[in-house]
Amino acid sequence: MQPLMGLDARAFTAARSHGAVTVRPLTTADRAGWDRLWKGYLDFYETTLPKAQYDLTFARFLDAAEPMFAYIAEHEGKAKGLVHIILHRHGWRDGPTCYLQDLYVDGDTRGTGMGRALIEHVYHVTKAAGGGRVYWLTHETNATARKLYDRIADSTGFIQYAKTL
């Protein structure tokens, strides 16, 4: 396998324990749990996607040639959270930059440190891959998550613009 962007693929295959939470890479066997968590995330943002997009997205996470990665957070052997990341080059940095695209924790485990464990796992993976920056977006109304984000990262003050084509 050709290393992605010249990086050691082992950086992306690590599992880590954060107290009672284990964060590990997504596997084929996680499909049902991932589908449930992904649907919960999309429901939170009042969004739906066709099954074909679920299939494509899941396949991308398992494709070693893709710069996309997914991790599952488990508590007591059950998938309770997920995080999706995309590594990319950056014009201002030598190493890769990580976009944390999606983060979701089941409602019954919010406030337990699971979201923090997922984000810290992303920090660890990105650093191990030679990256020096992780960034993400959240909706301004996502007050609960923003309390966590304000503790573990810096707000850049940038405003996002987007155009669907």
Can you describe this structure?
The protein is α+β, with helices and mostly antiparallel strands and 165 residues long. The chain has one domain (8-152): Aminopeptidase (3-Layer(aba) Sandwich). The chain is built from 4 helices and 6 strands; from the N terminus they run E-E-H-H-E-E-E-H-E-H. The protein has helices at 31-44, 51-62, 114-128, 143-152, and strands at 16-18, 21-25, 68-75, 78-88, 97-105, 133-136. The chain has a 6-stranded mixed beta sheet, sandwiched between helices. The radius of gyration is 15 Å and the shape is globular. The protein starts with 15 loop residues before the first strand and ends in a 13-residue tail after the last helix. The model has no long low-confidence stretch (mean pLDDT 90).
CATH class reads Alpha Beta
**Strand arrangement across the biggest beta sheet:** 1-2-3-4-5-6
For the secondary structure, the number of strands is 6
| CATH architecture identity | 3-Layer(aba) Sandwich
Question: How are helices and strands ordered from N to C?
Answer: EEHHEEEHEH
Instruction: Give the domain tally.
Output: 1
* Low-pLDDT ranges: none
Reported by name, the CATH topology is Aminopeptidase
Give the structural class.
alpha+beta
Distance between the termini: 34 Å
- Mean pLDDT level: 90
In CATH terms, the superfamily is Gcn5-related N-acetyltransferase (GNAT)
Largest sheet: 6 strands, mixed
Shape: globular
Number of contiguous helices: 4
Strand content: 15-25%
Radius of gyration: 15 Å
Percentage of residues assigned to helices: 25-40%
